[in-house]
Amino acid sequence: MTWEPGRDRIAALLEATELQRVTPDGSVAQTLLEDAGRHLTTAAAGLSSGDLSGAYQLAYDALRKSAASLLEVQGLRATSRGGHIASPPSARRLRPDQRVAKLRANTSRRQATRSDVRQLFPQVRAT
Description:
The protein is mostly helical and 127 residues long. It contains five helices and two strands; from the N terminus they run H-E-H-H-E-H-H. The chain has a single domain, classed as Four Helix Bundle (Hemerythrin (Met), subunit A) (Up-down Bundle). Residues 85-96 have low confidence and may be disordered.
C-alpha cells in the first residue's frame, strides 16, 4: 500500500522502526474496532456511575485500538518503540495528544473529569 499524503512521514516512521509493515488483516482490524466499541460502552457506564478514572482509561484504550485498526488495514503496526504515539497521517486526528496521554498516565494521581472522558468519545466514534 502507498500513502500519497504523508508518504514522507510514513517512510520516516518505518525507518525509525516506530512502524512496521505487516500483512493487512481485516479480521484483526475488525476485532480491534469491536473491542473499542465495547470499551466505549463500558466507559460510558463508568462515566454514569462516577468511575471517571476507569472511564478515562477505557476511553483512551478505545481510541488507541481504533487508531491501531486504521494502521492494520493499511498493513502497518506500531512497534513497541513507537507505542501509542506512532500513527500515520490518516490516523493523526485520532492520535492522542500529549495532554491526553499524560492524563492517562497520571490518573492514579489526578482524578479525570467528566470533560476529560467526554472529549475522547467523539474521537473514537470518528473511526
